[in-house]
Amino acid sequence: MENNYDFSMEKRLRDLSPNLHKRFADTVFSMQFILSNYKLIFPEYTDHTELHSLNVIDFCNKIIGSEIDKMNPDEIYCLLVACYFHDTGMGIGHKDYETFLKEIDFGDYFETHDKNNARRIIRDFHNEFSGKFIAKYADFLDIPSKEHLRAIIQISRGHRKTDLTNTTDYPIDFRVPSGNTVCLPYLSSVIRLSDEIDVTAARNSRLLSDIPSVISDMQKMEFKKHDAVKDMTIEKDRFVVLYKTDSPEVESALFTLFSKMQNTLDECRRATNGRTGYMITQEVIVGEKLS
Fold first, then answer.
1. Is residue 16 part of a domain?
2. 3-state secondary structure (DSSP) of residue 87
3. What mean pLDDT is predicted for residues 237-249?
4. Fewer CB within 10 Å: C terminus or N terminus of the chain?
5. Which long-range contacts (CB under 8 A, 24 or more apart) does 107-114 make?
């Protein structure tokens, strides 16, 4: 897969607000080492470093397309920063974990899950841990206002699980000090969808032959699925996943993955289209097998 990255948001932010663009650039510099901490907890997982963040931004740019003309600089800034922050919860330290554990609403999760399985808890709620991480280190990250902070946290949390149609948590017109409004359901839908479709072989952190024998069969299958997906093409009305495999088991797992991706796309379209001033134009996700 050859990456031809789209930098539309970065270029538009630079033109509209040099100050916010500089803040974003400074954030990228400060975050590049923090994101790699996930390897201390999940050494066997696919990539969650700044390279994944870059892919997510690239997909956001391509999904947004011409809708970028509607976006104000505060929306672009908040989405770009959220793209870099959204997986910080995967690599939090022990002290932060113990603190954040007391602050997150887990609902009835612990009725069926082990309270002592920190890896599982972090994995299942890493979006919430990311939100707590952003809030704690906001000053270090030079976020310009408490309103921007709130928007970035919500967009980061929104990359999975949260209800993007909840108008209290995700208003369409969240106001920031500049006087601009930030459309939280749209920005959160874009990052959720972009994160969901980052499944290509380029995201594998090692060759299939190097996968540790100690990891579960399910995790091995995750690597095999990623290895089989050779490219992702984003067209105006659809996503096309190009894959290659001779394994019926892997192909079946890919069909399940495509169905999950379609559910996410449908969910994001419901949260955006007809409710906000924005549109997600892609309607379907299809898989095409390479010979």
1. yes
2. coil
3. 96
4. C
5. none
CA 152 to chain centre: 12
Contact criterion met (CB below 8 Å) for 87 and 52:
yes
Whole-number Å distance between alpha carbons of 246 and 110: 40
**């808890």: which residue's tokens?**
121
- Number of domains within the chain: 1
Give a yes or no: residue 1 inside a domain: no
Residue 176 · residue 148 · CB < 8 Å: yes
| Nearest-angstrom CA–CA distance, 56 and 17 | 22
Q: Are 257 and 225 in contact (CB under 8 A)?
A: yes
pLDDT (tens digit per residue) in 11-45: 999 999 999 999 999 888 777 667 655 454 455 55
pLDDT score at 235: 95
Whose tokens are 């299809």? That residue is 286
Q: Which domain holds residue 30?
A: 8-289
CA distance 8 to 97: 36
Residue 3 lies in a domain: no
The answer to whether residue 35 sits within a structural domain is yes
> Mapping DSSP to helix (H, G, I), strand (E, B) and coil, where does residue 85 land?
helix
The amino acid present at 128, given as its one-letter code, is E
Three-class DSSP category at 60: helix
C-alpha span between 236 and 283 (Å, rounded): 9
